[in-house]
Amino acid sequence: MCSKRLSIPPFVMAMLPVGNPRNEHDPGNTQEPNTYGSVGYTYSIGKHEVTNAQYVQFLNAVAAEDRTNLYSPRMGIEVQSGITRTGSPGSYRYQEKTLMGNKPVNNVNWFDALRFCNWLHNGRPRGAQDTTTTERGAYTLTGAMIIGVGTDPIHGANGRNAGARFWLPSENEWYKAAYYVPNIGDHYWAYPTQSNSAPTRASVDVAGNMSPEDNIANYESTADWNGVTANTTTVGSGGTGSTSFYGAFDMGGNVSEWNEQKALASRVIRGGHYFDNRFAMGSSSRRGDDPARKYRRFGFRVAGP
To answer: Could you tell me what percentage of the chain is helix, strand and coil, using 3-state DSSP and rounding each to the nearest 5?
Structure first.
């Protein structure tokens, strides 16, 4: 008797080119080190934050045992998170919750994000977590929460290796993709919706889709959908006038996004989240947090060459 094979949806990671290399840093941001946004090369940025559906495929590929805790039980318990787990160690299976597949994954820490990048870099393999799946690639991980110095000549201090195919954006890469706009004024917007005015708080339908308007974002959320007040929304569901210049959605609000950048003992987080205020989405808002921390308001997007 043949066993029924699970249907696995196609994996899509939409990437956007970020051109205009050797651009000036943001002259309006006087925070130290006052070099935000300057990137000397072309690269690409994720059009959307990594979703629960994408992270589920990652988990089902490499986390049957889950020895580095890529899954947090909070994903199944907290209503703003979207992934459940069944089974036992060695045979775990993962599934997105109803209506949550296209919402951004959260309750992931910085190391989880690096392992996801390594998995993409290695071609999305299936198998136990080892040097061929999650522990080597764009980054070299030598323990659950231990990262080596990378070989990339620019970003190695933050852990990135030369030849990375996918990675967590550096702070400058993230900042440029969010706020930079060529040939207009000082070349940077204050908000990642091509505006110097704070986005309008989005209205949301019963499935968690934002209204398709310009200059909106999911922040200070009071929307009640799927029985939850204050929740993540479908990635990319705002209007095209709510993207950055390069076309990236939700770089303000929804979930705060891990950056590759060190900040003392922390790693940088940018963009604000669904329960944050409007100022957290602005270019002058910079935060750091413990890279080991998993939180329902933290997520990430990827970058690439």
So the answer is: 15, 20, 65
Calpha distance 72→234 (Å, rounded): 21
Instruction: Give the separation between CA 50 and CA 249, rounded to whole angstroms.
Output: 11
272 in Cβ contact with 243 (< 8 Å): no
Say whether 288 sits in a helix, a strand or coil.
Answer: strand
Query: DSSP string of 140-189?
Result: -EEETTEEPPP--TTTGGGTBPTT-SSBPPPHHHHHHHHHB-TTSTTSB-
pLDDT of residue 5: 35
Kindly state the helix (H) or strand (E) to which residue 112 belongs, with its residue range: helix 110-121
Give the integer Cα–Cα distance in Å for 207 and 57: 22
Contact call for residues 187 and 196 (beta carbons, < 8 A)? no
CATH superfamily, with its number, for domain 15-193+245-304:
paralog of FGE (formylglycine-generating enzyme) (3.90.1580.10)
Q: Rounded to an integer, what distance in angstroms lies between the CA atom of residue 112 and that of residue 184?
A: 37
Q: Dump pLDDT digits (tens) for 61-95.
A: 999 999 999 999 999 999 999 999 999 999 999 99
Q: Where are the domains of the chain?
A: 15-193+245-304
- Give the separation between CA 284 and CA 151, rounded to whole angstroms: 30
Give dist(CA 238, CA 255) in Å, integer.
15
CB 35 within 8 A of CB 172: yes
Contact residues for 114 (Cβ-Cβ < 8 A; gap 6+): 138, 139, 141, 147, 159, 168
Q: How far is CA 183 from its chain centroid?
A: 28
Please state the pTM of the whole predicted model: 0.94
| Kind and range of the H or E run holding 59 | helix 52-62
Query: Which distant-in-sequence residues (6+ apart) come within 8 Å of 222 by Cβ?
Result: 201, 229, 230
- What is each CA distance from 254 to 43, 173, 196, 304, in whole angstroms? 24, 19, 19, 22
